[in-house]
Design brief:
heterodimer; A: 440 residues; alpha/beta; Aspartate Aminotransferase, domain 1; Aspartate Aminotransferase, domain 2; 2 domains; four-stranded antiparallel sheet; 17 strands; disordered C terminus; B: 146 residues; alpha+beta; Sufe protein. Chain: A; 6 helices; 3 strands; globular
């Protein structure tokens, strides 16, 4: 371990360092509606340091060319950068290079798995793909807290193959009903798909326990890592998941690039999803043979500058230290919930203060719709997410249609959390709702 | 608080959102429409009731933000004994106001108190909230037998 790595493990992030980091993010100096921007929507999309933006521009200015084709110097350099980026992302989550597939976003990554299973179920992929074939009597298990991206593709896969979708419900405190998980995951289960960290509740799911249940019945595990990969150490091999998906734009990277991790043995046996150029070995007029993973799943021209910029973002996260970022945000998450719980009329969704959670919190304000809460906060320069956060079943479970979410990142300060809490305290009087929820 | 936000949430709007008019579905409709704002999950079910002039009234049920609730309420006040063409004119005038980005004041002869929603047009993200009930009425009108 190098000296810097050692420091990274032992020294907690402090406000002085965060203030220094903030200087790397030009947008954080913006004024919004006459107030300094308080950006609390990083769970939707994070901001980018200058270095990440420079990486894209630098590629366009000096290295732009097609990867994996052409023999000229620029093409070779572009290919090397592109593959180095893959290696960087692989190391970040404890995977090997050939286990990382570039996608447009996490949604496409999850659909890639679903459609590969679907194609296998149609008989594609030969004997190797036998294990991915689904039909009547097979079951796919999801949870009630899933983002639509990790729910709808499985609903569709079930509908296409005749498999049945089963659901693990939630406790009132926003945790998974593990008794139900043990009952639902059974001999018929072929796939278990769940999120690592809830994008609404901030709940951190017990991945190891769910993997053990899936392993016990020979089912494969798909992990939605969108809210974990950017914010906490993630080791897909240690967790034992078969697939994991996350997005670049939630981890200081650009939009347009996402990542699918798949165990090499599985990816190499899965039939392709998107087909065309760059993913074949031999093509005749009658048919084609495919490259091994990851190229098998990377048809057509790739998002090269975005991948390189994402690797630059990962370098940035590594330099700060993902473990240190995790601790910083955990404290901010607690500060959010502790503050919100004290405000009359506010109901926090998910774990109570004192319980481990991600650095985000969603709440409903009695008598004031989330859109109106968000509008009020926006007027103060505070950016939060309002609505169902692409998790309608979760909101239905808690008897609401919309909530307001504040989410933090490594550049968020305690002062910003406090400014947000002050803002929420002003909501009741502005909208004429007292602590009892009655109109003025 | 800036005047901008006060302009958006005018007292008339807040009153309508707290005690909405026309809320509660009535029987005897000639047409019905259900509309959802997919970005936030807000929804409305709106019914058209026939009368001598053509359209006697509307009734509705739904949930959403203060803007969407007040807008449905103000629309209910507006649609009283009108023919279908007059209703369409009012919907068109309201849509024009909502798309004006604060440039128009709104025609109070056509829109009545609903012109107070003009401030919404400065907040592009909220225009859909204000339009929800009006889109439902427009959709329902298309289902009314000519």
């Amino acid at each position: 371990m190098s000296i810097t790595e050692q420091q990274a493990v032992t020294t907690a992030m402090a406000i002085a360092e965060v203030e220094r980091l903030r200087a790397d993010f030009p947008i954080l100096g913006e004024q919004v509606n006459g107030h300094p921007l308080v950006y609390l929507d990083s769970a939707a999309t994070s901001q980018r340091p200058t270095r990440v933006m420079d990486a894209e521009r630098d590629f366009a200015e000096h290295r732009n060319s097609a990867v994996h084709r052409g023999a000229h110097t620029l093409a070779a350099e572009a290919t090397e950068l592109f593959e180095n980026a893959r290696a960087t992302v692989a190391r970040f989550i404890g995977a090997r290079e050939n286990e990382i597939v570039w996608t447009s976003n996490a949604t496409e990554a999850l659909n890639l798995v679903a459609y590969s299973f679907s194609n296998a179920s149609l008989g594609r992929g030969g004997a190797d793909a036998e294990r991915f074939r689904l039909g009547a009597g097979d079951e796919i298990v999801v949870t009630e807290m899933e983002h639509h991206a990790n729910l709808v593709p499985w609903q569709e896969l079930a509908a296409r193959t005749g498999a049945t979708l089963r659901v693990i419900g939630l406790n009132d405190d926003g945790t998974l009903r593990m008794d139900e998980a043990a009952a639902v995951i059974g001999e018929r289960t072929r796939l278990v798909c769940f999120t690592h960290v809830s994008n609404v509740l901030g709940t951190i799911n017990p991945v190891e326990q769910l993997v053990a249940l899936a392993r016990g019945v020979g089912a494969l595990v798909v992990l939605d890592a969108c809210q974990s990969a950017p914010h906490r150490p993630l080791d897909v091999v240690a967790l034992g998941v078969d697939f994991a998906a996350f997005s670049g734009h939630k981890m200081l990277g650009p939009t347009g690039v996402g990542v699918l991790y798949g165990r090499a043995e599985l990816l190499d046996a899965m039939p392709p999803f998107l087909t065309g150029g760059s993913m074949i070995t031999t093509v005749t007029l009658e048919g084609a043979a495919y490259l091994p993973a990851p190229q098998r799943f990377e048809a057509g021209t790739q998002r090269v500058s975005q991948a390189i910029a994402l690797a630059t973002a990962v370098d940035y996260l590594n330099e700060v230290g993902i473990d240190r970022i995790h601790h910083w945000e955990s404290a901010l998450g607690q500060r959010l919930v502790e503050g919100l719980e004290q405000i009359p009329g506010v109901r926090v969704l998910g774990p109570a203060a004192g319980v481990d959670r991600a650095g985000l919190a969603s709440f409903v304000f009695d008598g004031v719709h989330a859109h109106d809460v968000g509008q009020y906060l926006d007027d103060l320069g505070i950016a939060v997410r309002v609505g169902h956060h692409c998790a309608q079943p979760l909101h239905r479970r808690f008897g609401v249609t919309a909530s307001t979410r504040a989410s933090t990142y490594l550049y968020t300060t305690p002062d910003e959390v406090d400014a947000f809490l002050d803002g929420v305290r002003g909501v009741g009087s502005f909208f004429g709702v007292g602590s009892s929820g009655t109109a003025r | 608080m800036s005047s901008g936000l006060e302009g958006l949430y005018q007292e008339v709007i807040m009153d309508h959102s707290r005690r909405p008019h026309g809320q509660g579905l009535k029987d005897g409709q000639v047409a019905e429409s259900r509309q959802i704002n997919p970005t936030c999950g807000d929804e409305i079910t709106l019914r058209v009731h026939a009368g001598e002039a053509g359209i006697a009234s509307i009734s509705w049920e739904g949930h959403g933000c203060a803007i969407s609730q007040a807008s449905a309420s103000l629309l209910s006040d507006l649609i009283v004994d009108l023919d279908a063409q007059a209703v369409r004119e009012r919907i068109a005038a309201f849509r024009e106001l909502m798309r004006s980005r604060g440039e128009l004041e709104g025609d109070d002869e056509l829109l009545g108190d609903a012109i107070v929603l003009g401030g919404v047009s400065r907040y592009v993200a909220r225009v859909k909230c204000a339009m929800l009930a009006w889109v439902a009425l427009e959709d329902a009108l298309q289902r009314v037998e000519p």
